[in-house]
# Entry
Amino acid sequence: MLSNYFNFDKASRIKDNFISFDKPLKDQLDDLYEDMFYSIYEDISITLDIGWYGSTKNLKGVFILYLIKEDDWDNPILKLSTKDLSILRHYIKSSVEFIDNQLINSGSD
# Structure
């Protein structure tokens, strides 16, 4: 669960079925799917969404992280992809920091 690694207390809604950063990816194949994690921040109309896209067979897929503003999935603020858990962890950290700054700037903090 990502909430074991990052603070999502300010999210309005969360789905957190994310895998562990502490286990090899090859040992978590059954847990990889598109809708693994999302957090919605209604005060600033931002959604952080992370999932696995592609086949888990031989790890032929990638994680994709989306930052979506006002439910505009056709034009994400950010779309990043990787197969590497350490890179993904960095992407998530940067995205959470961006969201926290948006919340502070909006006065929602």
Q: What stands out?
A: DSSP finds one helix and five strands in the chain. The chain has a mean pLDDT of 93. The radius of gyration is 14 Å.
